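ASSEMBLY PREDICTION REQUEST
Request ID: AP-0331
Submitted by: J.K., bench scientist
Number of chains: two
Total residues: 1597
Priority: normal
Notes: Please return the full assembly, not individual chains.
Input sequences:
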Amino acid sequence: MRQLGILALVATTVMVSACDDEFLTEVPSDFVAPENFYRNADDALAAVNAAYASFVNLRSPLSNDDYYGRNFFMVTEFQTETITNRLSATNERSLVDNFHTQFVSTHPYIETIWQAAYAAINRANSVIGRVPAVPMNEALRNRVVAEAKFLRALHYYNLAGLFGGVPLKLTETAGLTDLELPRATASETWEQIIQDLEDAAAALPNTYPASDWGRATKGAALTLKGKAHLQRAQTGAGSAADFAAAEAAFREVMTLGYSLDANYASLFDGSNERSPEIIFSIQNTTVPGYGGRLSEWIAPNPSSGTPVFPGALNHFQAERPFYDTYDSLDVRKAGTWLVSYIQRDTLLRWDWTKGSAMVTQYGSTGPTLRKYLDPDATDEGAEEPDIIILRYADVLLSLAEAINEAAGPTGEAYGLVTQVRTRARVSRALPAGLSQQAFRDSLFVERRREFAGETHGVFDSRRNWTWAKARIEAHMAMRATANRSPFTSSVPKFFPPNTNTTPNIPEKWRLFPIPSRACQLNKQLTQNPGWDGCLPPGAP
Amino acid sequence: MRLVRLLSLTGSLLLPGIVLAQDVGRIAGMVTSADSAVLQPLFGATILVVGTPIGTTTGSDGRYSVANVPVGTHTVRAQRIGFAPQERSVVVIAGQTVTIDFALTTQAVRLSEVVAVGYGTQLRRDITGAVASVTTDALERGTPISSLDQLLQGTAPGVHVNTATSAPGGGISVRVRGTASLGASSEPLYVIDGFPLESDESSLPGNGGRDRTAPANPLAALNPNDIERIDILKDASATAIYGSRGANGVVLITTKQGQSARPQVSLDFYGGVQEVSKRYDLLSAQEYMDYANEWAVNGNVAIPFPDSVRARYTANTDWQDLIFREATVRSLQLTARGATGGESVTRYSLSGGYYDQAGIVLGSGLRRYSGRINLMQMVGTRLQVGGNLTANRARSQSVPTDGQQNRGAGAVSAALQYAPILPVRRADGTYSLIRQDIPLILDPPETPNPISLAVDVRDSLSDTRVLGNVFGEYVVIEGLKLRVSLGADYADRWRYTYYPRTTLRGMDVGGDAIRSTASTTSWVNDNTLSYQRQFGRIHDFTLLGGYSRERRELDGETISGQGFVNDVTGYFDIDAASVFDSPTSRQTSWALESFLGRVNYSLLDRYLFTVTGRRDGSSRFGADHKWAFFPSAAFAWRASSEPFFENVRYLDELKLRVAYGEVGNPAIGPYQSLARLTSQGYSFGGNTAGGYFVSSIANPDLRWERSREVNVGLDVSVLNRVTLVADYYRKKTRDLLLLVNLPFESGFESALRNLGGLENRGFELGIDTRVIDASDRGGLRWRANLSFARNRNKVTDLGGLPTIFAQTPTGDYNIPGSVIEVGQPIGMFYGFKSGGIVRDSAHAASIGWRDFDGAAFAPGDVLIMDISGPNGRPDSLITVHDQTIIGDPTPDFTYGLTNTIGYRGFELSALIQGVQGNEILNINRLRTEGSPRSNVSRERWVNRWTPQNPNAKFPRVRENPNQVSPNNYTDNLLEDGSYLRLRSATLSYIIPTAWIGKYGVNAARVYVTGTNLFTATDYSGFNPDVSSQGTGNSNRGIDIGAYPLARTVTFGVNITH
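STATUS: Completed
Returned structure:
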């Protein structure tokens, strides 16, 4: 009996203690590690697909609202005279709206855009750094790397447009040291963007088979390159050579088979996503996590009855002074704004002329954005309409801009604008014989009407700051004094103080502040002129 | 022979005699209490043949019998907790039975107590570190206990229990000597009968990741009636035997074992009624409409309730009345214990329990079934084998309570917010909805109907756990023992939730079902060798060496779907959904390998030395830091054993203790040191395509948090009546596991690193006194037990950052989380300072700064103090720069006082417990003192500012006066969280044996207990003991619609045969 016991004890000991050296080595089973990835073409494609995915799906702690899902739209569009959120003065989103005096560098929206853009850049950097070593078809490999370069350039384009020169992080982050980079100058930043786009344009195909529709094309790279040259030159970081380069890029795009779509409204509602006008768009589909998320913020939400869908917030409303400037026949008015919709078999309609505002969430009183609104949306990130980033109308107007800057309003420049206006069925022709400045200003007015709600607003304002400042101030003054019923609601529109009829936008608004948390985490960052929360401009 | 003696005393290691001689006899007798006016048999007294491992314990009749005692002269000792031990000399004759009876006197001094210290036991008098104990005395007091935390609360100094939610089976947060971590868990390590259970929130299935709910209690499945004793190792010298897991303290739980030779069967039953202990005083329908009208007048908008509209609202609903209820609780437990005699002793303890608690919030409740078998078998004289097996199943129904506001509100916060003018249901039978049914101008949020949440939502949690352990112990030579144990734990947990289409959330999506499951499997193998030897009466050595391995795996998944045709099947038939979310699954494992050792050396029974060390290797750490060593040393001087103290008769014990040690905290998830890729797809041409990106950076340097702690203690007992244990400690923790934010440009939010440090220091006092002895005053007895603890916590380093903000506690307001700042305690509240209410226009005119909107402060406004600006100086404008640290959620001190007064068979026992000096952020008040979008507290209405009431407590009726800028709040929302609570009071009576003996019942006791009968506090919410954000290290002390506290009265009976 005793011997049996000893035996049992020893056996147990040996059995459970039998040493395997791997006992403390972690072998993860529910995720993939870099060591067993980047091995073949499938992995390379998966890596670049994930770089695209940051358009629709940001990982915690970022949320999908933080970039193209919401914040980027609010930051780029609320600052124009076209769109407002009409929230109470102290709401987080009101602070983004129209040059709020209490807007500070701690505002979460600019912080998350900065953060999300760099997260997306890192995904592109992984592809650019890792894929060249992957054994696979060389043409495909070059294309994948070129796609990543286009994506990297796009995110830097957004950063440079909002913040000026930014740190140039061009390699994948692999360790925890040397992560603090100083800001590059605006000129250097644009140079990098242009370089990436040149590389991308050289390797990207003109088109893809249907199953790959939505990947970056040569046309996308060239269009963005042209726009980057324009943005650089028009914001004082470039030279006259940029206009020529932009012109060349746009002219090349014009040879690639794009054309204006006869049906303006169809571009934005998900019904015409392969239009020959679309050059690059965020691919949305109705699979949860693979679709858009904007509708929640756009859709009106009448207080009685079931809302269009849960949580509709109606934060993108037309500014009436702007809304009233559309030509009566301009199809873009109805293509951009929703003035009525059917709710429980009842047609609901905003009707300013009768002075009766439709009561909606947060006191909406004006038409809401129609672009990108999916009436069948749920809150699952499964909205159909693709978000257009580049389209042919932009090429035409941008080329006109480049020509005008280089050579004044030539007949060709006029012709380009006319093409866009004709498609919009604007009845009045652009006045002939405009000065270079007048042509420039009317070109930007045209861009406002053409691209309202498409994230170009702040970029455009900064290319023609004097015009934009005067125009927005004038609109704000109208809004403040007129007290016209459509512009009042239970929650007054904010411009401090409310009675100020002569708003003055400070010069610091030519750039957003560098987010102060970015500065806390990267001590090398310096702040833009006029803003606080970081090292002052020029400090080391 | 001390070690053998010690071991023979422990519950789990009961050693019957090792008989080497052939001639043996028997000792038998009875142990009684000498203090009682009636001679009371003492159950559970230990009988020892000194110098041998032979011993037993008395049965409920006080009788004992020890067989196989070698012939010769022996000293027999009888001891029991709470009584002074007695020794008698006896001559044993072969084949005969000698009878010895003992009459023990009670003793406040707990020197004879046997304390579990991890991989062994020690006498209380020999302990050199800081160990607090909750003993059978407290456990057997008869208070109905539904969970372990109720045993720890207020009874052990330095152990602070915070209730995350008062829901049945709800979560608790235990802090031993303060918070010692920022990024990792600060919960202690629980060891049940030698089996370590890390408190691991990540192993709990959530609600599909959608709604924040307080975590479930990881120990809810353990039946408290099975617990024999709880010992809490507090300082580093005591916990060093658990090495890398010792930094947060170790709670050792010992379950009951069979002891007496005579089988003992007992039945315990109690039943009771619970009700909400406190409510918010909110407005009636008429008052609410008055409030709304005044709000409209003050805001220059149309009055929402002109008389014509007023007439339409005829309901006057008290929503709290409707969701709170009187609820029953009952518990039944059957236990059988005993031991067989003869050469091959078998000890057994079997128990089965049933516990059923309905929650005081409609729709909530907990039911638990538990069973336990403890067995021990002697095989020959040198080997004993044994094992225990526990199986528990706890099933609870929860209602969404700890929720946010607006759409995510839980039943409790919705009940506070819902306007009293709404009926529960509309005329058509559907639930009323505040967004749709009150005047639009109030612009109410889409808060769900509270009754729909409480009644219609089905939210089931199940926790099934099987914990088993087998061991063998072999005496190699005298004094040298080998022990091998192998334990396994399997826990299966699920949480199924269904929001039917009658609820707001279900309405939108056609019913919403979520099934989330998680199971964990772990095993532990411990192998220890111990040796005890005494040299003369001078040197006494105990050596312990061991090797241990442990592994744990977790597996879980979540599926969810929406769009059901009807609500019949709910989550049971998820295939019936028409829309599915992507399913998620996870699988992780970790392993720990350890070498441990301990030396106890006692010189002249006066100078006590303990040296402990453990070398741990953990899979959870970086490739370069898998192993670490945790040493400790302690010294104690028992001055009272010095010759010069021998004549000081009143002094029973005077012991000074000094200890120092280093321990670790590994409580982070597995794989954190590795880089990982996460899948994330995109669609091209309408077709989804898979993708992978790098979502975290590798950190091969990741390692333990290290805590170094010095402890100085004093144990005094005098007059055989008063025991005092005092400890001072200082614990410095460095290499904190911190999720360090990386520069945004890296593309990553954060990485887990070892950075920073913090410090806890404090003072603890435990006093145990026998105020009146039964022998003093004709049968009257009174015992009092006081515990007091004070802990100060300070962050000393955050790896270069000045501050870290915790995540926002509520997405509806984006209110900032608490702040961790160098030089301050962890998790301070951060917001604006208020300066009271602006009294009148003269006062307003004297204010030299403007509010957040650039407007001047008006009479009746909450004045917000301009304390800083962009340049660090007041700038005459309220900006985000005016925020500062405004409060501390950590108490200055905690205390507990237990009084037990007895007379003959009657006993009255009461536990008073409290905390002092902490603050609570009551987010509920953002709504109950704000706009009429939700109901409002009566005090806010009655004592509001008006020109006629300039010295009001509350501001003018307006929008949220407690919010400043977007996403911020003032210190008005902070409240003093100090409280003093009569946590429990029990009156019991032992029915005389004369009355019941004829029914075959040995002992019967009846009692009535009141729980939470009384709380003295200034806190305006339901319960100041609140932390609705769970068990984390920051965001503590926040109240958002937390489950309210129950006041309970129960009646119970214990019957023993």
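REVIEWER COMMENTS: DSSP finds 15 helices and 56 strands in chain B.
SIGN-OFF: pending second reviewer
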